């Protein structure tokens, strides 16, 4: 695991470029692809016409089972693999044409050539720093030490890379991506090989970087691991982008149900009111031991479209106005895993 050479600052890179100022929607997005496709020589279509949209400031969870095309997509974003078809814009500029200008502003952690095994973590970072034409060699040590501290490798700075555990190697890759301030970070499976503590630390780091204004795309095949830290989610399956949007939207509507507990005497009123509101599948459960009845209804159809269905707070208001007593009110949201399974009919496993 290491940073992609092309994705970190290189000798070819000029001084940091000003923010791109192109007209149109493209300039507002950190990453935008159109019809991005990769067909390998084996004939396999690893990535199949995807339109990725990562707004600036987002933490975009790029999720999908093993083999779904995440790494291939990321390699195309960074210009490490040539697409068979489609376009990539990074920070508003077309790739690979603008690579020399844009890539110094992009930090990346992707699978790639290894660090030097006989050099220490610090020396490896210094080596990477040295090829960055815009980095002042007098402050290399400070930058390397700050990056090592940031990923919790301060105490292991002088250990040789070959003596690092998998998790430590992963952390060093992250440190390399953080050697200088970035507008965009692309992290491919950053929690690979990390223990639960390390995974928490990566989440914390991602949140910190995002708070400081960096856009982050982070891939994982483990939904639960990064779900909590993301503002946006894209789910890959079989080379296709199955779903994309803000996390809240994806789980707020698709498959969410409003659950209302009413006194038994009010159950019929509540049920009628939910149906009047357009919640056609409203049903009432049997009365509980305490005499209350739970009435529930889906807040979206099974495609996730909410059409003109009311928001939860409007449902509560309408029930009160209709005279139905409310003992408890809840909106059950599905987990992302449930959304994924519902969408694909399969688990989060290797399918090809
Ligand atoms: N160089 C290559 N030549 C041929 N096929 C490849 C090549 N690289 C990847 N593939 C295939 O493309 C598909 C997508 O692989 P990719 O590594 O992009 O998936 P991924 O979602 O990143 O998986 P993981 O979570 O396991 O890293 C897989 O079926 C893989 O076998």
From TrEMBL:
<keyword id="KW-0067">ATP-binding</keyword>
<dbReference type="InterPro" id="IPR003439">
    <property type="entry name" value="ABC_transporter-like_ATP-bd"/>
</dbReference>
<protein>
    <submittedName>
        <fullName>ATP-binding cassette domain-containing protein</fullName>
    </submittedName>
</protein>
<dbReference type="InterPro" id="IPR003593">
    <property type="entry name" value="AAA+_ATPase"/>
</dbReference>
<feature type="compositionally biased region" description="Low complexity">
    <location>
        <begin position="1"/>
        <end position="14"/>
    </location>
</feature>
<dbReference type="Pfam" id="PF00005">
    <property type="entry name" value="ABC_tran"/>
</dbReference>
<feature type="region of interest" description="Disordered">
    <location>
        <begin position="1"/>
        <end position="26"/>
    </location>
</feature>
<feature type="domain" description="ABC transporter">
    <location>
        <begin position="31"/>
        <end position="263"/>
    </location>
</feature>
<keyword id="KW-0813">Transport</keyword>
<dbReference type="GO" id="GO:0005524">
    <property type="term" value="F:ATP binding"/>
</dbReference>
<dbReference type="InterPro" id="IPR017871">
    <property type="entry name" value="ABC_transporter-like_CS"/>
</dbReference>
<comment type="similarity">
    <text>Belongs to the ABC transporter superfamily.</text>
</comment>
<dbReference type="InterPro" id="IPR027417">
    <property type="entry name" value="P-loop_NTPase"/>
</dbReference>
<keyword id="KW-0547">Nucleotide-binding</keyword>
């Amino acid at each position: 695991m290491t940073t992609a050479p092309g994705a970190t600052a290189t000798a070819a890179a000029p001084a940091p470029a000003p923010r791109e100022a192109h007209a149109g929607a493209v300039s507002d997005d950190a990453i935008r692809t159109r019809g991005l496709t990769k067909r390998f020589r084996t004939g396999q279509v690893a990535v199949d016409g995807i339109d990725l949209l990562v707004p600036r400031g987002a933490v975009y969870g790029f999720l999908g089972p093993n083999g779904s095309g995440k790494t291939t997509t990321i390699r195309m974003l960074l210009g490490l693999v040539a697409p068979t078809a489609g376009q990539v814009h990074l920070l508003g500029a077309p790739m690979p044409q603008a690579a020399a200008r844009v890539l110094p502003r992009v930090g990346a952690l992707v699978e790639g050539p290894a660090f030097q095994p006989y050099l220490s973590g610090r020396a490896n970072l210094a080596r990477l720093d040295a090829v960055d034409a815009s980095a002042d060699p007098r402050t290399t040590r400070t930058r390397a030490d700050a990056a090592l501290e940031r990923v919790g490798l301060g105490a292991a700075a002088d250990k040789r890379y070959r003596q690092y555990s998998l998790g430590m190697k992963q952390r060093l890759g992250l440190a390399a991506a953080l050697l200088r301030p970035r507008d965009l970070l692309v992290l491919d499976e950053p929690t690979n090989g990390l223990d639960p503590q390390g995974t928490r630390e990566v989440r914390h780091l991602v949140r910190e970087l995002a708070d400081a204004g960096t856009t982050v795309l982070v891939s994982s095949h483990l939904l639960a691991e990064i779900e909590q830290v993301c503002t946006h989610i894209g789910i890959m399956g079989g080379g296709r982008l199955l779903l994309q949007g803000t996390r809240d939207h994806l789980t707020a509507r698709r498959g969410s149900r409003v659950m209302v507990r009413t006194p038994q005497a009010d159950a019929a009123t509540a049920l009628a009111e939910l149906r009047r509101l357009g919640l056609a599948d409203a049903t009432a459960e049997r009365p509980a031991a305490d005499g209350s009845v739970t009435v529930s209804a889906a807040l979206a159809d099974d495609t996730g479209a909410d059409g003109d269905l009311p928001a939860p707070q409007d449902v509560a208001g309408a029930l009160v106005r209709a005279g139905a007593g409310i003992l408890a009110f809840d909106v059950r949201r599905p987990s992302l895993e449930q959304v994924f399974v519902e969408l694909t009919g399969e688990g989060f496993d290797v399918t090809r």
